[in-house]
Design goal:
Chain lengths: ~625, ~650
């Protein structure tokens, strides 16, 4: 409908030859057997060409893929982002008797599903794909593309984006990635021979690092009408939200309803923190339908109905309601607009409106502000669901006061063990273990525990995964009380922790020690993302039989990264015939630059090595 | 609508005033499921009706209607509607409804929810497709109800009745029915096979029809145990086959294996002609070799180099191989075409061979030899020579002649001969073939760092396991190798992954790796502790369960041999040389022997595992076997600084 406004308006476009034409692969493409730049590649993007025609207000993206090996056949099934009312067409080309034959993509093999805010996921299954096939896929829609990827997980021989300029629409783009451009001209960008993107462990969303542009519309000029502004400045973005019936209005409506809820909460909750927890408990009663959104699914007037009658909503329905309740309870609370973790981090350079897909609350508790999200009832305050832990979000205090805030409450997830053990004459350790799980450790455990049909099944599985341990008794407290920490008490015997050579026993002091370094690569290209800060710690007390004597203990150590982003401490002391060990492995920061990789890999290495040092005991 | 959304049409309506007021009908609430059906279950089949009406030899209509409750996330795949079809079948009238835990309707699936995708991403030229619906709902438990109609034209296969479709799925009620015309003519009929004695199959006659039916209810979920037999071997299944069938204009029957073989012979008749040029070439090659074996091997290599495998499963081509001359022309074909082609080549050279049908797969259940029917999915060639039979796998460019591998080893296959066709067993690969041998040289430094140089050879079933890695791109190869290494901290500096398939014995995959591992050995003052066997790591032992129900199966005998030579650093010596350990059990043996030679420690570790079908009562013994090996593998040695 908007396209009608743009016909006949003045524009300037960059006349440039198209690198490929849909449906016309060359014989060379068909005959190619291997890609010289990367001879092991299973498939190759011969060309990806995006062209936004500002005059017709239409975007067309054409991709040509070559299948090189059997492993590459899966590239015949493509999944990509599109918008509503996209047109998709595709053709598979094969050589038959020296001639190029084509198979058309049928509509039956195109599958669309909305992701959020009118952004769709489109899946296509190309027909007749074989080793050697060339596949052409074309997507077109009448809008500026949300993003354009120069890089993929297979090599890209040639990537070009052309964005015609027009006086009617101005936009801003953000570049992500580390690949330099070959050609940069006004409205035209080319990268050739882009290497396949290599994902690394502890990386977060691949999208953040794959070479791509993200676009945001800033202004649309419609002659005879006032200019429509979008993401020109963050203030403008804030206004868009605050004036919307699906956001700002929702924060002003139904005041009596939310005050009623707040009042009843305040009857039994006096401290700020208790009020927040109770407000969260109240919105947990609204079933989250699994959809991420920065805007409510209903107009402000219907929000109350949604909460009370349907008791179901998207993430914004829930979090805007949460903000309303907290405000009505007298706590200073604001919305933060952001993007979820799986979509990659936001660019710090340019404001965006289009790329935001989530809203959370920011509430003052005591002297500090906390980020709050009401969609997941399995996460206790102040922890946040992983999808929220995504760098920074934009806090909207008012229509002219916005700022970046860290999407974290710095809540440290903890796994602490407390062992009280006796070393028996046959060198087994017998005694009790108390395991405390806090935050994400507790949440992960509760999730995993649900898959067992009985507690005994859980215990059996525990013993299957560690044959050295025989569990006599295992109880778990507060399994269903999400707000409290998870405490597991185990009575067990552990074998295989000691070896005897002549009259000396060599005893491992930490039963659940780390044995493998999660960082196996020798080099790292991208930052390390641990998602949330955590601590792995333990206190172990081992009582030796009468007459045994400790000859030597591992030396106590303390290692830390220069800025204390991560640390490890270990201390072992004897007291009579008792050995006491304390260890603490902490990751305090969540993101580390790739230049810190050697330090981090080394810290893990030191911790693993120290935890493997035995105590030397003279046997009676 | 919000500004953002004016530019992009939104079709989502999460809120519908209408549904809020409509009367709610309750269907299949979860609380109506009997408690005993929830045990060990990821999903429960609430009801299922599977009715097949056979109209003639050529056509049949099947109606499927079932309701399944998905109890938790681990059962989510059971919530999908998945119905494959191909050239001779079609799926229609697909309906689906989603209910929540209380039984209230959440959604009725529309046409736009039904996807149609390619069935097999492996196959390159197939008309097998799948209709599927993804309920896209993750509030567990939930219930889905699906129904559809399947039309079959050409009914060489009749669907079997699997009472228990999957592990961890219980059944509340299931009804199967097969209606077939019965005009007194035996050849119109069908034959059936029960894999368990007491399956309550009912057979009735009504007018001109015969009705087979089976009704079961309240079947508890079967628990998936480690290394258990196939579900079809431990749960009730009724198999059906048409006494006569017609497909693509060809007729066949299943009264006995010979009759079935005749159908194949008809399909293959006259398709072995080759051009004069090719015949000349083949004769020359054959003449240049002296022995029968050499002729077969050389002609096989000739075929491997000439053609490549492409799966063609279009229409009648699913059954009838391409003509040999056509394969010669286009240089590709599927297993039927390539096997027929190889047979034709050997025929020109005066060597007799037999087209053989097999049910292939590394991990597949055996066929029912007592139930002649189409149970096959692959073709190989049997080349006999006075008791010295060679089997040829014709779709693989990467194996030597005569090698079958885990794909078609150790199973009954139908060898189609001119006179009587017969069931023969293919090669069993055992201890002499399934070998993984690894040599590791370790240089240890006095700061605890160790340099490893590893060379691993994988043969037999290990070749089959490792071969795919040789085809990965460099990035994937490196990632796969990193996953296989379990040293505490390491750097993989160099590696190579190669397949050696040129010699005429067993093919092998050779992997070499150079690894540096800082702090491999724990240093404490003048002592060093290290695990002498670098390949041990904490892993699962699934045999602790004292209440095991089913047998456990070791499919193939195999042997793994390791030799580790460790250079002790200057000035250090072993505090105590570990004594030799040896275990011998019904399942196999294990030995771990360490000796000292000129400042080097030499470890030889050998594990032999014997193929077998072991009763559940032996599971504690098997647990002990694995556990003892793990304890010994993980043991440490102490080096002491001497002076």
């Amino acid at each position: 409908m908007l396209a009608a406004f743009f016909v006949g308006l003045s524009f300037s476009s960059y006349a440039q030859k198209e690198p490929i034409k849909f449906g016309k692969p060359s014989m060379e493409d068909l005959e190619m057997k291997v890609y010289p730049e990367d001879t092991t590649a299973s498939a190759l993007i011969l060309c990806v060409y995006g062209n936004f025609d500002a005059q017709r207000f239409m975007y067309v993206e054409t991709t040509r893929i070559k299948i090189l090996t059997k492993e590459g056949l899966e590239w015949g099934n493509r999944t990509f982002r599109s918008l509503a009312r996209s047109n998709v067409r595709g053709k598979t080309f094969n050589l038959l008797d020296g001639k190029i034959v084509a198979d058309k993509l049928s509509n039956k093999s195109i599958f669309n599903q909305e992701l959020y805010n009118g952004i769709y996921i489109t899946k296509v299954t190309m027909p007749n794909v074989k080793v050697g096939s060339v596949i052409d896929i074309e997507v077109s829609y009448d809008f500026l593309p949300p993003s354009f990827y120069f890089q993929s997980t297979i090599p890209v021989k040639y990537a070009e984006l052309v964005v015609g300029s027009s006086s009617t629409i101005t936009y801003k783009k953000n570049y992500f990635g580390i690949i330099p451009f070959n050609i940069v001209e006004p409205g035209r960008w080319v990268i050739t021979n882009v290497p396949a993107f290599q994902s690394e462990p502890f990386m977060g969303a691949k999208k953040t690092y794959m070479a791509h542009f993200e676009f945001d519309i800033q202004r649309i000029f419609i002659p005879g009408r006032p200019t429509i502004e979008f993401a020109t400045t963050w203030d403008k973005v804030a206004q868009l939200y605050l004036y919307s019936k699906y956001f700002g209005e929702s924060l002003k409506s139904n005041k009596a309803f939310f005050r009623q809820i707040a009042d009843s909460i305040k009857e039994t909750n006096k401290t700020d923190e208790d009020i927040v927890k109770a407000a969260l408990a109240r919105v947990h009663k609204i079933k989250w339908n699994g959809r991420n959104s920065d805007m409510s699914s209903v107009e402000s007037g219907l929000l109350k109905y949604l909460i009370v009658k349907k008791a179901e909503g998207n993430s914004a329905d829930i979090n805007l309601s949460l903000i309303n309740i907290l405000r009505a309870a007298g706590l200073e609370t604001y919305p933060i607009v952001m993007r979820t973790r799986d979509e990659g981090q936001l660019s710090m350079f340019n404001p965006t409106f289009y790329n935001l897909n989530y809203v959370v609350g920011y509430v003052k508790v005591g002297e500090n502000f906390y980020v709050v999200d009401g969609t997941d009832k399995n996460i206790p305050f102040p922890f946040l669901a992983e999808r929220c832990l995504n760098g920074k979000g934009r806090l909207i205090k008012s229509k002219d006061e916005t700022s970046w805030v860290d999407l974290t409450n710095n809540a440290v997830s903890k796994k602490s063990v407390f062992y009280v053990l006796n070393l028996k004459n046959d060198l087994t350790l017998e005694g009790t273990e108390t395991k405390l799980r806090i935050g994400h450790y507790a949440e992960d455990f509760r999730e995993a525990y649900k898959t067992y049909t009985s507690h005994q099944e859980y215990v059996d599985q525990l013993m299957s995964s560690n044959s050295n341990v025989t569990i006599e008794k295992d109880t778990i407290k507060d399994l269903n009380n999400v707000q409290s920490n998870l405490v597991e008490n185990i009575t067990e015997s552990i074998k295989g922790q000691a070896m005897l050579v002549d009259s000396l026993a060599y005893l491992y002091l930490i039963p659940d020690r780390m044995t493998e370094n999660p960082f196996k690569q020798d080099k790292r290209l991208y930052p390390i993302d641990f998602i949330y800060p955590y601590e792995r710690s333990g206190i172990i007390v081992i009582t030796l039989p009468e007459g045994h004597k400790v000859v030597k203990l591992p030396q106590s150590v303390k290692y830390a990264l220069p800025d204390h982003g991560a640390s490890f401490l270990f201390q072992a002391v004897t007291n009579g015939n008792r050995i006491s060990v304390i260890y603490k492995f902490k990751i305090n920061k969540t993101m580390f630059p790739e230049t810190d990789y050697p330090l981090i890999k080394s810290l893990f290495m030191q911790a693993i090595a120290k935890e493997s040092e035995p105590a030397i005991i003279k046997i009676n | 609508m919000s500004l953002k959304k004016t530019f992009v049409i939104i079709l989502v309506t999460l809120f519908s005033a209408v549904s809020a007021f409509a009367g709610k009908k309750i269907n299949f609430p979860v609380n109506e499921i009997p408690k005993e059906l929830l045990k060990n279950a990821d999903a429960v089949i609430r009801m299922k009706e599977d009715i097949l009406e056979r109209k003639s030899e050529k056509s049949a209509v099947r109606t499927l209607h079932y309701v399944i409750t998905v109890l938790k996330k681990s059962g989510s795949r059971h919530g999908y509607f998945v119905q494959p079809y191909y050239r001779y079948s079609s799926v229609s009238a697909i309906k689906g409804t989603l209910y929540n835990a209380s039984g209230e309707k959440v959604k009725t699936f529309k046409n736009t929810d039904i996807s149609d995708v390619l069935g097999d991403t492996e196959s390159l030229f197939t008309d097998e497709r799948i209709k599927y619906i993804d309920p896209d709902y993750d509030h567990y438990p939930y219930t889905v109800e699906y129904s559809c109609e399947i039309n079959y034209s050409g009914t060489i296969n009749l669907p079997s009745w699997r009472v228990v479709p999957s592990y961890n799925v219980s059944i509340q009620s299931e009804t199967f029915k097969l209606i077939t015309p019965d005009k007194g003519n035996a050849s119109d009929g069908i034959s059936y096979y029960l894999n368990e004695k007491d399956i309550p199959l009912k057979i009735e006659k009504t007018g001109s029809d015969k009705i087979y039916s089976l009704h079961v209810s309240n079947i508890k979920a079967y628990e998936d145990e480690a290394m258990s037999p196939y579900l079809s071997q431990v749960s009730p299944v009724v198999y059906f086959a048409p006494v006569s069938f017609e497909i693509g204009g060809f007729n066949g029957g299943t009264r006995n294996w010979n009759e079935f073989a005749s159908f194949i012979k008809e399909l293959n008749k006259g398709r072995d002609e080759l051009s004069e040029e090719t015949v000349e070439k083949i004769k020359n090659i054959a003449a240049s070799k002296k022995t029968w074996r050499e002729k077969v091997d050389t002609l096989y290599r000739y075929m491997q180099n000439k053609v490549r495998y492409v799966l063609i499963a279009k229409g009648i081509q699913s059954w009838q191989p391409m003509k040999a001359s056509q394969v010669d022309d286009v240089s590709y074909g599927d297993c039927k075409a390539l096997t027929n082609y190889m047979k034709s080549i050997l025929k020109v050279a005066g060597i007799k061979s037999y087209y053989t049908l097999v049910y292939a797969g590394r991990n597949t259940p055996p066929i029912l030899t007592n139930f002649p029917s189409n149970q096959f999915n692959h073709a190989i060639l049997c080349v006999p020579n006075d008791g010295d039979t060679i089997w040829l796998e014709n779709t693989n460019q990467n194996i030597p002649p005569g090698y079958l591998g885990s794909f078609t080893d150790d199973r009954d296959v139908l060898v189609i001969k001119n006179d009587t066709s017969e069931m023969v067993r293919t090669i069993v690969y055992g201890l002499l073939q399934n070998i993984q041998s690894r040599n590791t040289d370790v240089t240890l430094f006095d700061d605890g760092t160790a340099d490893f140089s590893i060379k691993q050879r994988s043969l037999g079933m290990y070749f089959d396991q490792m071969f795919p890695y040789t085809q990965f791109d460099a990035q994937k190869q490196r990632k796969s190798l990193l996953r296989m290494i379990h040293l505490p901290t390491f750097n993989l500096s160099k590696y190579s992954l190669k397949a050696n398939t040129s010699n005429n014995e067993l093919p092998e995959v050779i992997i070499t790796m150079d690894i540096n591992s800082p702090k491999y050995a724990t240093t404490m003052g003048n002592l060093m502790f290290l695990q002498l066997y670098p390949f041990h790591y904490d892993s699962q032992n699934d045999f602790r369960d004292k209440n095991r129900k089913y047998n456990f199966v070791i499919k193939r005998s195999n042997r793994r041999i390791d030799s580790v030579i460790l250079m002790v650093p200057e000035g250090y010596s072993v505090a105590k040389l570990p004594s030799a350990k040896e275990i011998s059990t019904d399942f196999g043996s294990y030995s771990y022997k360490v000796s000292e030679q000129n400042g080097k420690l030499v470890l030889v570790r050998e594990v032999t595992v014997m193929k077998g079908n072991y009763p559940p009562t032996q599971n504690e013994e098997f647990f002990k076997f694995q556990d003892t090996m793990n304890q010994i593998d993980g043991s440490k040695i102490i080096l002491r600084k001497t002076n």
